[in-house]
Amino acid sequence: MKLRHIFASTLAVGLLSTGAFAGPGHKPGETHSHADEAAYGRPGDPKKPARIVQVVMREADGKMLFLPDRLKVRKGEQVRFQLRNNGEIDHEFVIGTVEENHKHMKEMEKNPEMEHDDPNSKRLKPKTTGEIIWQFTKAGTFEFACLIPGHYQAGMVGSVVVE
Question: 70 and 139 in one domain?
Answer without folding.
Answer: yes
